[in-house]
Amino acid sequence: MGMQIEPTKSEEIKKMKNEEKTQKLKKIENEEKANLSLEKGTKLDINDLHEKLGHPAEEMVKLTGNYMKLSIQGKMDNCKNCAIGKMRQKNVKKGPKEKSSKPGFPFYIDIALSKFTSAGGSKYWFLAVDEALHMKFSLFLKQKSDVKDKFIPFLKELRDTYGRRVDHIRCNNAGENRALKSTCIDKELGIGFEYTAPGTPQQNGVMERAFATMLGKTRAIMNGAGFDKKTSSILDGSCKYDHPSRKYYD
To answer: Strands across the sheet with 192-195, in order?
Structure first.
């Protein structure tokens, strides 16, 4: 008896791939034949034609079918593939319907990361905005966890020195903000916190606009003074007023 040579694993895998490729080519060929078989007078369900034409609107399907002299039958159903392919996030309002007229209600807060470290070693820019007065307060942090250590003394200063109590704060659900809330509860400051939903900066649009406005102003000042980009970032803090509360709360 002659010796039989068994195919190696690599040859078997290659054979299987070739068979899969052949099947795919046959499938594509059959689909193309079906697409080309739309001859004059062909009876075709409107949902099938909708799919063959690439999921256009119902009106376009009917107009195309009439132009091709096809006999369109049936009623257009809600296309699941269209719904999935064209879905998007629901519009989110960027701010409240009516702006507050009471200072300290609410405060918006957020943190931005700088590309460079400042002369004082700060890497993060913490910004708070009073909705009623449109006043912005900046703090510069070496770490995000420093928020509670720097912002709470500022809140106490507003309350004890200027008689302005912050009642409500809107922020994202980051760890440093949750820690700030816990510390506010421990210190009995009586501040309510409202967290924005993940992935929706529109819910804190006041902060997004405030960052862009102040950063643009800082760049303009630094460019006018002849500083380069890196030096501007290092000296940033001098233009983003640290504690201007006396001017606005006296």
So the answer is: 135-141, 124-130, 107-113, 168-171, 192-195
Residues of the chain above pLDDT 70, percent: 80
Residue-range domain boundaries for the chain: 10-85, 107-249
Helix (H) or strand (E) holding 135, with range, is strand 135-141
Q: Considering the entire predicted model, what is its pTM?
A: 0.58
What sign has the CA pseudo-torsion 224, 227, 231, 235? negative
Run of H or E residues at 168: strand 168-171
Query: Which pLDDT belongs to residue 126?
Result: 92
Amino acid identity at 214: M
Please list the residues that pair with 72 across neighbouring strands. 44
Arch. (CATH architecture) of 107-249: 2-Layer Sandwich (3.30)
What is the phi/psi pair of residue 141, to 5°?
-120, 145
Give the pair of three-digit tokens for residue 143: 């770490």
Q: How far apart are CA 135 and CA 119, in angstroms?
A: 25
